[in-house]
Design goal:
It contains two helices and ten strands, in the order H-E-E-H-E-E-E-E-E-E-E-E. With 139 residues, the chain is of the alpha+beta class.
């Protein structure tokens, strides 16, 4: 693989915001990784104490199911299939609630608690990050 090809892949990673990329060309395999640094001039905001206490109180009303990986959220096992769960539906601990596709692998996401789906926080086909809230479940 030529230097120019590697530079193109590195620029593509930067453009798409990727932190890792593996490319196989004939018998050559190249893995590119980069670290993302936060600019020093980015602003951070503190939550006033009143708002912080409200957030804590609201957290007791529901449980969040968050994405454990970066990937594409799918609400159903196939394009024309019914979704795994719907708002208002009761679910059990260990029940599959969605799929997150990462690097062509379909990862089933399951519930850690029993409850009722109160909100689906993302849309089908949406790219999700690690820690993105997928569902809210009423206890």
């Amino acid at each position: 693989m030529k230097d120019t090809d590697i530079r193109k892949y590195a620029e593509l990673m930067k453009e798409l915001g990727l932190t890792g990329l593996e490319v196989t060309d004939n018998n050559t395999k190249v893995r590119l990784e980069r670290t993302v640094t936060v600019a020093a001039n980015e602003k951070t905001y503190a939550i006033p104490e009143e708002s912080a206490s409200k957030a804590v109180k609201e957290d007791k009303d529901y449980i969040s199911i968050k994405s454990p990986i970066v990937g594409v959220f799918y609400a159903a096992p196939a394009e024309n299939a019914d979704p795994y769960v719907k708002v208002g539906e009761s679910i059990k601990k260990g029940q599959t609630v969605c799929i997150v596709e990462a690097m062509k692998l379909m990862n089933e996401i399951t519930s850690d608690e029993d409850g009722i789906i109160s909100e689906i926080c993302v849309t089908n086909g949406q790219v999700v990050e690690y820690g993105t809230e997928l569902f809210r479940i009423k206890k």
